[in-house]
Write a structure and sequence with these properties.
0% strand; mainly alpha; 48 residues; single chain; globular
């Protein structure tokens, strides 16, 4: 898992892009908002 996170860090353009990729690769199953890879739909902002 750590190697996967490091690879996502290297591929990400910024922090927001990193968290989008993390939500896709390692989704939280009990989260209220699951991000799905639909490029034509607007994405919600990550809560702080």
């Amino acid at each position: 898992m750590l190697e996967g996170v490091k690879a996502i860090m290297r591929l990400s353009k910024d922090k927001h892009d990193f968290w989008e990729k993390m939500d896709i690769a390692y989704p939280k199953l009990n989260a209220a908002i699951l991000l799905l890879p639909f490029d034509d739909l607007p994405r919600p902002r990550k809560p702080k």
